[in-house]
Amino acid sequence: MADNDPQSTPGLGAEPRPALSDPAGEGSDRAAGLPDSAHGSPPGSALDSAPGSARVTDGAEPGGAAAKAAARARLRAARRRLTPAEIASRGQALARVLATLVPPGAAVAGYLPMPGEPDVRAFLSDHAAGGGAVYVPVIASPDRRVLEWVRWTPEAVLQRSAFARIDEPQGDRLSTQALQELHTQGLSILVPGLAVDDHGARMGQGGGFYDTSFGAGSDLGAGSDLGAALRLIAVVHAAEVLSPGSFPVEPHDLRVHAIATERGATRLRAL
Ligand SMILES: Nc1nc2c(c(=O)[nH]1)N(C=O)[C@@H](CNc1ccc(C(=O)N[C@@H](CCC(=O)O)C(=O)O)cc1)CN2
Ligand SMILES: Nc1ncnc2c1ncn2[C@@H]1O[C@H](COP(=O)(O)OP(=O)(O)OP(=O)(O)O)[C@@H](O)[C@H]1O
């Protein structure tokens, strides 16, 4: 199981592998200037060493790319400071929190965590044991930002993605649309991210995959008929729930319905 342990390879980006395209340098760890606007963050949170700075204004660069890169670097650095024991105990707490947001037996599109990410595997195992179908993403095309979905159980045989430090199950793949059409009665998406604001905007790893799959411009975006039965639940560490303006938000960015952290659930829109 060690290969499926998000803590087994400490230090993000340490392994040689084909990097996903990162034109704005989001993958780099340059000094971050994330504003000190988090609220409810405990001491030692992702932001409490931020230099005093103005709120993100998007500046001159399109989409606030430099500001996003800085925010990502800071948030990733904070994740690297988490211990395996912290991640594991938060994972147990998350399992209880997510059970309050996801109806028993409902289909769930989850994820298998990268190092430092909230570990949702305890929840996914419980949910699968209760009869709910669980899927996780496979990076099908990094260039076209396409995800596909494979059924997951705790026994799944995993293979490391060629593009990221993410384990993916083998098996039949479904497109995002096919997954949704299979579960028109409701599908809960656990959306991984580096941060979310309490208006439901989210900042991810910089691949654009979830925005392309579920954001405003997608076939399944808010307001679309197909997207109506989707529940988008951002899963982040509690210190990563930030106030609006803490990171740049673009029109294509998806908006989540709810936020789950190890400290509890926040419902933002009707689920
Ligand atoms: N667990 C998990 N699975 C997921 C996602 C995620 O955020 N979390 N994704 C959400 O979209 C997709 C993969 N997206 C990714 C997008 C960018 C990078 C990336 O740029 N990685 C950098 C290094 C990042 C780091 O050091 O932490 C790289 O490859 O250089 C990785 C994954 C699909 N599966
Ligand atoms: N729907 C879209 N159409 C075109 N470009 C997009 C779309 N969504 C994202 N992008 C582009 O993809 C890149 C990454 O976007 P962004 O920073 O929003 O990703 P992210 O939300 O952090 O990633 P992910 O969803 O993979 O976690 C940016 O260059 C962005 O402009």
Structure characterization notes:
The protein is an alpha/beta fold. The protein has a domain at 85-265: 3-Layer(aba) Sandwich (Rossmann fold). It is built from five helices and 13 strands. The chain has helices spanning 65-80, 84-101, 121-129, 176-182, 209-214; strands spanning 107-109, 134-141, 146-151, 158-160, 167-169, 174-175, 187-192, 195-197, 202-203, 230-235, 241-242, 258-261, 264-267. The chain has an eight-stranded mixed β-sheet with strand order 6-3-2-1-7-10-12-13. Helix 2 (84-101) crosses helix 3. The two termini are 34 Å apart. Residues 1-19, 21-45 and 47-55 have low confidence and may be disordered. The ligand Nc1nc2c(c(=O)[nH]1)N(C=O)[C@@H](CNc1ccc(C(=O)N[C@@H](CCC(=O)O)C(=O)O)cc1)CN2 binds next to strand 2 and helix 5. Residues 63, 68, 203-212, 215, 217, 250, 252-253 line the site of adenosine-5'-triphosphate (ATP).
